[in-house]
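Supplementary Data S3. Sequence and structure tokens for construct A.
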Amino acid sequence: MSYLLGVVLFALAILISVSLHEAGHLLTAKAFGMKVTKYFVGFGPTIWSFRRGETEYGLKGIPLGGFCKIVGMTPQDDDVEPGDESRVMWRYPVWKRTIVMAAGSITHFALALVTIWILAVSAGLPNPDFPTTDAQARQEPAVIQLSECVVPENAVRACTSADAASPAAQAQLKNGDRITSINGTPVNSYGDLLTTLRSLKPGDTAQIAYVRDGQPATTSTVLAQTQRPPLDNPTGAAAPVAALGVGLVPSTPTRVTYGPVGAFGATANFTGDLAVGTAQALQRLPQKVPALWTALTGGERDIDTPISVVGASRLGGEAVENNAWLVFFMLFVSLNFFIGVFNLLPLLPVDGGHIAIAWFERARSWVYARIGRTDPGRVDYLKLMPFTYAVILIGGAFTLLTIAADVVNPITLFSR
């Protein structure tokens, strides 16, 4: 039940954010005097609506987004009523049209920023000093966290009854113990622990010295077997190695909370990292298509492949089911930021395409004026329709592929 609740909550959060996106267009257009005739949440048949002034507001039957109808977005629009010629959007200065078209993405960015700030002063943001690479982790003290078992293959999965029990647990080690030596070899860091274990063989007996609550002690256990790549080549072929059945407890906290003022700087830093990650994700989209197809046809789902609204909602459901609300809100932040950036791409039919054309017209008019030629006027959107349809076709196919992969072989963050 909690999983379904999480799915519904996340889907509702997405619908609200998209509705606010359209509200951004609506409010800025009205503020500049443009005529807005419709604002609807959803698509398809109208369930309920009312009219206030010249605008009809309402709810459609398919809750998959929304739309805002601004009269005369292009010179080719033919729905301009007599007397409204001066209020059509394309006649307004380019900076006003830019604000109106960018308002949707700005709304997504605002939602993300406000959520990040709230998280910074409440649940905390990821600690920038937390070790995120193998090299950083190996410099940490060898403070351990026990695994439930030793998985024999080189994989991350839930334990089964067939898996070997954790040798560390059998040796009565506990979470938070700091290992100081194995078979007399000093262990000063987690990297030393890994190197020492790799020098042993599965089935060897390990004499372990450790510190618990400031008190030194010793124990022994028989090492299990797992598969791992070489320490100096993480992408190399995995081979049998000895395993103690422990992980690292970093010396730094995973999250940091801030005061109301300090949270602004933390929000800016986190947003900068998010912007870089979003740009890198957009660059990787074309090369992820084969991985999505592999996942759809029965292969393993790459956790780095894109997800659709369906996949994001499923992850939101998992987060609520596991009481991981920070994950839920981080998903909300990431999705809003991605949608905001995507809508600013200079491609029709997204908002960034209209902005790009407006500024192209402005630049072309300036150049023609300087060289003494007649202004060619507005861009003919009808001539761009083949390109627009191509973008819609490619985008639609990619969306269907991600939705299908999220239904057949979804990404999961928690064991269910």
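Construct B, processed identically:
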Amino acid sequence: MLAGLSNVLKITELRQKVVFTLVMFLIFRLGTHIPVPGVNASVIEQLFTQGNLFGLLDMFSGGALSKFSIFAMSITPYINASIIMQLLTVVVPKFEQWAKEGDEGRKKITQITRYGTVLLGFIQAIGMAFGLKVAIINPGFDSILLVALTLTAGTVFLMWLGEQITEKGIGNGISLIIFAGIVSGLPNGLYTIYEYVRAGTINIFNVFLFLIIAVAMIVFVIAIQQGQRRIPVQYAKRVVGRKMYGGHSTHIPLKVNQAGVIPIIFASSVLMFPVTIAQFIDVPWVKTVAGWFAWGTPLQTILYAILIVFFTYFYTAVTMNISDMAENMKKHGGFIPGIRPGKPTADYLDRVMTRITLAGSIFLAIIAILPNFVGAATNLQGVYFGGTALLIVVGVALDTMKQIEALVLMRHYQGFMK
């Protein structure tokens, strides 16, 4: 491992990329401590004393939401805009055409995604300003508009920061910003555990049990994230002019968790809707219904798992075009041994994808609802150790390591990972 790190430090270009990424992380962390003007942050911090959904959102923003800083919305509007654009690419012919045009088409899609980020960010900022106007010192129209514009500007700056990391740093910038926000909460979590032990709230056995569960979850997430079903593909030999093409074997890697963390985001957004609406409607029966959907209740947990399974199949079906995959394979003379090209190949791939997606959806559901049971088993109620966060951290770390490995292998025979 030390030899691999020395290889990284020897490469000037890679060293500069790593340093640039760390500087961007520092700017992000500094921004989480710049408060929004005209807001009493101490009032908002009272909402984050429990490990509820607000705590989950605060963790993704690196603590910026509980401080109500300029980065309080984090990069969430950009993620939502990207998901919407990805779905529209499937149903809007113009967007689908752009997606097939290479770099120029991707630039157009990226530009629309930026505009969508500003629009969604401003709408979300207005909602947050109205929902938390009890914390605004002078809750007038001007103050609410100022808060909304400040939050939107913070999100746009984070979007720019992420794009700079992607272009000049190492890894995917947007993912790394979320990664940095989650990891930044680790020292505070460890200090909370230490305070619990010192106060006698928990004992060493609880801490040991928590560590065992944490390690088991990390191993489980890595195994599923790396898991894939490899479908063998054989290409027939064909002669073009005086040259012979094809005649080689390869495979199609179908990932177990093809949808990533997107189904969890979808399911969380749907279940947040009743609770959000109840904050603006002061009617007893509405408050009662919203209480059924409160974070961690039995109904919310069951619906959460069901929605995650549904959205996993939905998102996988939208983003993976099995028919096009089979048709392209047929055009290039490829076939799966024992399966006829064309529709039989598409049916076979669809059948395999359906089976492994079931395993992936159950995995996501378990990961998402596991924190409720971890807190009950270890009595660590104030420490959020969520499978969702772990899934993001492990996924981003693996992707970044692969990029570093690729850059190192371009200049050395010996890589970074062994």
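Residues 167 and 173 are 8 Å apart (CA to CA). The chain has two domains: 1-184, 203-379.
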